[in-house]
Design brief:
Blueprint: E1 3-5, E2 16-18, E3 20-22, E4 25-27, E5 34-38, E6 45-50, H1 54-69, H2 78-94, H3 96-107, H4 111-134, E7 138-140, E8 147-155, E9 158-162, H5 168-173, H6 176-182, E10 185-189, H7 196-208, E11 215-217, H8 222-231, E12 237-241, H9 244-255, E13 260-264, E14 270-273, H10 279-291, E15 303-307, H11 311-322, E16 326-328, H12 343-358, E17 362-365, E18 369-370, E19 377-378, E20 381-384, H13 391-394, E21 401-407, H14 410-418, E22 422-423, E23 425-429, H15 433-442, E24 447-450, E25 465-466, E26 469-470, H16 477-480, E27 483-491
Parallel strand pairs: 1-16, 2-6, 9-10, 9-12, 10-11, 12-13, 14-15, 14-23, 15-21, 20-21, 23-24
Antiparallel strand pairs: 3-4, 5-6, 7-8, 8-27, 13-26, 17-20, 18-19, 22-25
Helix pairs in contact: 1-8, 2-4, 2-6, 2-7, 3-4, 4-6, 10-11
Bound molecules: NADPH dihydro-nicotinamide-adenine-dinucleotide phosphate.
The site of NADPH dihydro-nicotinamide-adenine-dinucleotide phosphate has 26 residues, from helix 8 and helix 9.
Length: 503
């Protein structure tokens, strides 16, 4: 029996108000507009943001440009930059409960999960600090007596960072500390639905010793505040996480000035399961992969590709576990699945389920929205009889909806896994190393888990093949992504003239 936890009213909680952060100052927008965020679980206003017009976006870019061209952040030693990042990590850690609560109230995610995300973010800020000191180029002393080649890594310049609502603090932490480690200056625009924890970073970074203008944070809509960050000639690079559609728009906006673009986009990630797998471990991973963050996760394991011999048994076991998942009040520490980000998004999820049943799939568990008295929630849902060409098997639902497909041979499993436009992540479950390697090497995805799902570490690169994105975050290359490569070609001694022989 699914456990539903009705959200309790938020007693006497003052609405938190956030200004933007431009050139080291907490400021209102130039036209004085504000925007209220109604919490998706509680149905009441939880935050108020001062929002940016295009003019404010331009001010933020100008501040970042000045800080890069004239300020000391890019010119400080790596040791100095690392000290600021480490101090920021300490402050984030000290304020972890406050940041987690903000993310929970604004996004509807379970508080226990939000706390885990902030702890993970602290680790990333520390890792970026370590990488700052290890950023270096190369030298070539092998080019003959007359030449020394030095390859420099230089900060790329002003970076726009645009983030979504599903992991508000974690995703900005996968970008910002690496850009700062490289010596870049930044303009950050979080989602209009979950801007609070990112706006808090202005205060945190000032306290950590970051100079004014090195990071500027603006709130507002994508069309008004986000778009200028992707096209402005003074921006050198855009780092974006969100939908594939806006990712493509970002790339085309950036093309006019040939900005570098890093994109983390959608996924439709397969879990491929063979009969010799540890099924008990897999069943738990299936439930985790599908319902974690209410399925609002680019890494969600939303496509199960089960060997036909075990499909019935495995689906029955996943269904049993699905019915026990605790859904509801995200402030209850035992909740595993919280609210859906918006009513429009809940409608989108429900319409995918309806479309799948019309196309011939069967609802095995769940199937629709839950009425818990406040906010918007979706029942954990399993769809069986899904065929590879159905929309629910190919497109990102971004909700707690699991599609079950079956296969007969390894070749068939690989073909089904690869037969979509996305390529973010995948997993294989088998005790046979040959099977694991066949899937691991031939499935086209940026991450393939073997006998586990959605594990990660700051050291491990993350990103997608094909329409799941461009570039990689985390790992030791993350800092290099925010650099330009420059060759210094040094001539030693007398140069041999091209035309006039030397006398
Ligand atoms: P979007 O891609 O619309 O939003 C991501 C970010 O881009 C937000 O900050 C948004 O601002 C901003 N943005 C929107 N339009 C523009 C623009 N023209 N120029 C610059 N920035 C812009 O994702 P949604 O939040 O609307 O989610 C829609 C779908 O995207 C989901 O259903 C899911 O399938 C997918 N998604 C994937 C994510 C991932 O992690 N890969 C994360 C979130 C969503 P604002 O929203 O404030 O207008």
């Amino acid at each position: 029996m699914t456990v539903h936890l009705r959200p309790r009213p938020l007693a006497d909680r003052a609405v938190r108000e956030f200004k933007m952060f431009i050139d080291g100052q907490h400021v209102s927008g130039s036209d004085g507009r504000t925007m209220d965020r109604v919490g998706p679980a509680h149905g009441v206003v939880v935050s108020r943001y001062h929002v940016a017009s295009t003019k404010d976006a331009d001010r933020a870019i100008a501040a970042a440009r000045r800080a890069f061209d004239e300020g000391d952040w890019p010119r400080r030693t790596a040791a100095d930059r690392a000290r600021v990042l480490l101090r920021a990590a300490e402050i984030i850690e000290a304020r972890a409960d406050e940041i987690a609560l903000l993310d929970t109230l604004e996004s509807g995610k379970p508080i226990s999960q939000a706390k885990g995300e902030i702890a993970g973010s602290v680790d990333i800020w520390r890792y970026a600090a370590a990488l700052a000191r290890d950023l270096h180029g190369e030298s070539y002393n092998t080019l003959g007596d007359g030449t020394l080649g030095v390859v420099l890594r230089e900060a790329i310049g002003v970076v726009s960072i645009i983030t979504p609502w599903n992991f508000p603090f974690l995703i900005v932490s996968q970008k910002l500390p690496f850009a700062l480690a490289a010596g870049c200056t930044c303009v950050v625009k979080p989602s209009e639905l979950t801007s609070g924890s990112t706006l808090l970073l202005g205060e945190i970074l000032t306290q950590a010793g970051l100079p004014a203008g090195a990071v500027n944070i603006i709130a507002g809509t994508g069309a008004e505040a986000g778009a200028p960050l992707t096209s402005h000639p003074d921006v050198d690079m855009v780092s974006f996480t969100g939908s594939t559609g806006i990712g493509k728009l970002t790339m085309s906006n950036a093309a006019a000035t040939l900005k570098k673009v890093s994109l983390e986009l959608g996924g439709k990630n397969p879990q491929v399961v063979f009969p010799d797998a540890d099924l008990e471990a897999f069943v738990d991973a299936a439930v985790f992969g599908a319902y974690f963050n209410a399925g609002e996760c680019c890494n969600a394991g939303s496509r199960l590709i089960l060997h036909a011999d075990i499909a019935d048994e495995v689906v029955a076991r996943i269904a049993e576990l699905s019915r026990q998942v605790r859904v509801g009040d995200p402030l209850d520490p035992t909740t595993k699945v919280g609210a859906i980000i918006s009513t429009a998004h809940l409608d989108k999820i429900a319409s995918y389920v309806d479309g799948a049943t019309r196309a011939g799939a069967t609802v095995y568990v769940g199937g629709g929205p839950l009425d818990l008295g406040a906010g918007q929630f979706m029942a954990p849902t399993i769809l069986t009889g899904v065929l590879p060409d159905m929309a629910v098997a190919r497109e990102e639902v971004f909700g707690p909806v699991l599609s079950v497909l079956t296969f007969g041979t390894t070749e068939e499993a690989i073909n089904i896994a690869n037969a979509i436009d996305y390529g973010l992540s995948a997993s294989v479950w088998s005790r046979d190393i040959d099977t694991c390697l066949a899937i691991g090497r031939r499935v086209r995805a940026g991450t393939v888990w073997v006998n586990t799902f959605m594990d990660g570490a700051s050291e491990l690169p993350f990103g997608g093949y094909r329409q799941s994105g461009l570039g990689r975050e985390l790992g030791r290359h993350a800092v290099e992504d925010y650099t330009e490569t420059k060759t210094l070609n040094l001539h030693i001694g007398a140069r041999t003239n091209w035309w006039v022989p030397r006398t």
